[in-house]
Amino acid sequence: MRRVIAATGFATLLAMIGGSASVSADSSRPDLKNYQHVFVIMMENTGYNALIGNANAPWINSAAGTHGLATNYFGVTHPSQPNYVAATAGITGANSDSDETLNVTNLADQIEGSGRTWKSYSQNFSLCNGNTLAHSCGNQLYERKHNPFVSFADVQSSPARRANIVDLSQFETDLASGNVPNYSFIAPDQCNDMHGRFSPTPANDSCSFPHVQELITAGDTFLSTWVGKIMSSSAWDGNSVIFIQWDEADFTGTGFNGFGDDTGCCDSVTGQGGGHVVSLVISHSNHSAVTSNTAYNHYSLLRTIQDGWQLGCLGFTCDTANVPAMGALTGPQG
């Protein structure tokens, strides 16, 4: 089950950020950075027009007018899980939310092969009590489909790699100790990622699907809190960057697989894209507001990280003619 999200106007955003020194940057940079730290925060099931200009998302709209905003970014497909796989392996897998094991080369392989480190931080993963492969824990707070590294066979089979899949509380500890990996994948729980959960008594559960605007407010607060923690830590240095993405656009009951927005780009299947979503890029070495209307999707996100660290490509990120990197939003080399 998914939820209906009402669109809000773009005019409100313009009023909120009208005086910003935003510049257009619509081409991919050939000189992508060697990032010190990459932070990817994946949010859920909310279309671009549901957020931009929405008074219930003040931090998001402020960030859109202060940092990097991709105005033409899309999910790769529907439902959730294949978008997470796209952002970490350059493919979509089985295109379902069912538990899966993918015997494919993935970003963890590339990161480790380059001598760098990674962790996947999932809020309320601790409620699974050590069961890395649990489907769902804590009354739908944690969902495996939002934790992509669990699905890779060479992560499942390695105790050392499984140890990199941890609860979000560990992220705060790592930030405080200065023990932050080069790549951090951050997944809020379903009450904080704007997804929500099924509840038999939705009127009594502010985390249930019908509470659309409350969920948006909760997600906005989560981002404000955790981005603030990152930016006040010693890990926020040099060419570090934060990517904040939404996996796919909202559900309206029509269209492919029940989704109303099936638009896409960049090697997603025509008519089966994941819809128009917000993508925010906060760069430590770029302090100017910047927008890009270049068409990007989760393959572009992955390619941006790969190119910056010279990791090579995976799946559709190898199609450089159709999958541009997002260097226009990450700022100049520093």
Task: Tell me what you see in this structure.
Residues 1-29 and 253-258 have low confidence and may be disordered. Strands 1, 2, 3, 4, 7, 8, 9, 10, 11 and 12 form a ten-stranded mixed β-sheet that branches. Strands 5-6 form a two-stranded antiparallel ribbon. It is globular and about 50 Å long. Helices cover 27% and strands 15% of the residues. The protein has eleven helices and twelve strands. The longest helix has 20 residues, at 212-231. Helix 4 (80-89) packs parallel to helix 10. It has helices at 11-17, 48-51, 58-64, 80-89, 107-113, 153-156, 159-162, 168-177, 212-231, 298-309, 327-330; strands at 23-24, 38-43, 68-74, 118-122, 136-137, 142-143, 165-167, 183-187, 241-246, 276-283, 290-292, 296-297. The chain has 334 residues and is an alpha/beta fold. The chain has one domain (29-168, 178-330): 3-Layer(aba) Sandwich (Alkaline Phosphatase, subunit A), CATH 3.40.720.
